[in-house]
């Protein structure tokens, strides 16, 4: 027994116990983050359902008389070390106009995502957003752009690769995959793989 423990602790420069310590640290970090993030949701009027997980503290900014609602079992990674592909900043969810809406379904995952709504952003169930994705339904700096917001709809089971940007008026069909670093300015149909700048359909999803 002692020999087994000694081997586990010393082989491969002690990688086993180092990884074990990292896992324990992350569980504790998640527990503290959950308490703080859910308290922030409460005081900022963000509607959040059960069993959501937070690694680090997201930033929520809800404009008066707007709505941010999050479904069951969603995961938000706002800590740099919580996703080893690299998270550049905390998750940021914000509404910018009266009656603006952000709706997120169940079992979704976000890493350092930015979601900004002036009209409506609707995200379905089982949607995964890679690190540092941006989703917005308006052009920001409205005093300069003089444009109107347009709703963004992302249907169920969509996977959006890291650093992708989803701009106003876009609808992404269910089961589709958006490649990393894509700039999505037009609708993407269901059941396809799409990517590029601007994003276009590359092939049907197998």
Main attributes of the structure:
6-stranded parallel β-sheet; 8-stranded mixed β-sheet; UDP N-Acetylglucosamine Acyltransferase, domain 1; 206 residues
What is the CATH architecture assignment? 3 Solenoid
Question: What shape does the CA trace take?
Answer: globular
Number of structural units classed as domains: 1
CA radius of gyration is 19 Å
Unreliable spans are: none
Query: Count the strands?
Result: 20
Helical coverage, percent range: 10-25%
SSE pattern: HHEEEEEEEEEEEEHEEEEEEEE
Q: How would you characterize the largest beta sheet?
A: 8 strands, mixed
CATH homolog superfamily: Hexapeptide repeat proteins
For this structure, what is the CATH class? Mainly Beta
**Subunit arrangement of the protein:** single chain
Proportion of residues in β-strands? 25-35%
Number of H/I helices: 3
Strand order of the largest sheet: 2-5-8-11-14-17-19-20
Q: Briefly note the CATH topology name.
A: UDP N-Acetylglucosamine Acyltransferase, domain 1
The SS-based structural class is alpha/beta
**What is the rounded distance between the termini?**
49 Å
